[in-house]
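> example.struct
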């Protein structure tokens, strides 16, 4: 990226920050004065930002105001901040209860991204750093988030994504994955055994926001040899209860929630 391009991006960011003044609208001349730029340069920036929905023209003037996309970005940032605050103590308690690596993940496109993580207390532990992207179809967290999306969204995902076999246990048959997602939705939790990486197991449960939408997943992961040494019901119950606890903090009352744990 050239210095000129970087300067343009910087100026666009500076322009957007001027709206932090909370004024209803700002015109080209006023923005040019504040930014120390020419009117033509500011007009080009505004035209580009308007095309992306980041600013919009006022209904009765030549001034500009923030666009709906800025509101959507702000809501996304708020959800992530709220999620971190709501989940942190629960994540610590889940790690303490199970002794295993506990994490919160969100969907980003067709991948899962870990946004909060607490390491296992064992010397032998998993090393998946926060921020790493992994496919949705072969992880417990990803399967939970897919399972609670609409059938139309699931169909589009299955049509779009190549189900690559990361191990011999990875589900690569679309009909089988669709059936797996139905089971996950019905029981309220998902598991992944050797599907993304041999020797690794995880269990995940959904995190709902105030509207009931699944915005994240909370999970526990461990080496599969140690995972099998813990009663499945106890591990799954701990994760499900953790998901419900975080969901309640986000405003979702799971009064009718029922989870079938074998």
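> example.seq
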């Amino acid at each position: 990226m050239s210095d000129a391009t970087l300067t343009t991006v910087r100026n666009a960011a500076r322009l957007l920050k001027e709206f932090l003044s909370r004024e209803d609208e700002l015109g080209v001349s006023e923005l040019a004065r504040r930014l120390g730029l020419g009117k033509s340069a500011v007009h080009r920036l505004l035209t580009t930002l308007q095309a992306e929905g980041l600013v919009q023209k006022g209904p009765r003037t030549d001034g500009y105001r923030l666009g709906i996309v800025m509101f959507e970005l702000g809501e996304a940032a708020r959800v992530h901040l709220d999620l971190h605050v709501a989940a942190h103590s629960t994540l610590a308690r889940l790690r303490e209860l199970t002794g295993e690596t506990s994490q919160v993940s969100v969907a980003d496109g067709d991948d899962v991204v870990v946004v909060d993580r607490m390491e296992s207390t064992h010397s032998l532990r998993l090393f998946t750093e926060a921020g790493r992207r992994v496919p949705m179809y072969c992880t417990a967290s990803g399967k939970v988030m897919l399972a609670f999306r609409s059938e139309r969204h699931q169909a589009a995902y299955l049509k779009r994504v190549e189900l690559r076999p990361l191990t011999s246990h990875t589900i690569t048959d679309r009909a089988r994955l669709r059936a797996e997602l139905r089971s996950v939705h019905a029981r309220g939790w998902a598991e992944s055994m050797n599907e993304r990486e041999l020797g690794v197991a995880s269990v995940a449960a959904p995190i709902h926001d105030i509207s009931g939408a699944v915005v994240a997943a909370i999970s526990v992961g461990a080496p599969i040899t140690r995972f099998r040494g813990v009663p499945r019901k106890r591990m799954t119950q701990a994760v499900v209860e953790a998901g419900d606890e975080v969901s309640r903090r986000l405003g979702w009352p799971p009064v009718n929630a029922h989870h079938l744990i074998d």
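> remarks
The chain has two domains: 3-66, 75-249.
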